Amino acid sequence: MGFLDFFRSGGGVPVEQRREPRINASVEVSEMLDLDDPRVSEWLRGRGYESEAGAPVTPHSALKVATAYRCSAIICGAMATLPMDIKRRVGKNRVDAEDAVIWNVLKTKPNPWQTPSEFKRLMQMMVLMRGNGYALIVRGAIGKIKWLIPLTGAMQVRQNSDFTLTYTYTRPDGGQVTIAQEDMLHLRGMSLDGINGLSVLGFARETLGISIQSEKRLAKMYKNGTSVGTVLSTEGEMDDPEKDRLKANLDEYRGAENAHKTLILEGGLKWEKVDLSNEDMQFIENREITATEICMFFGVPPFMVGLTTKQTSWGSGIESMGIGFVAYTLQDWFTMWQDAIKRDLQPADDPNLYVRINPAGLMRADIKTRMLSYAVGRQWGWWSANDVREMEDENPIEGGDTYLQAVNMQDANKATNDLAAHDPNAPTSK
Question: Where are the alpha helices (DSSP H) in 299-366?
Answer without folding.
Answer: 318-325, 331-344
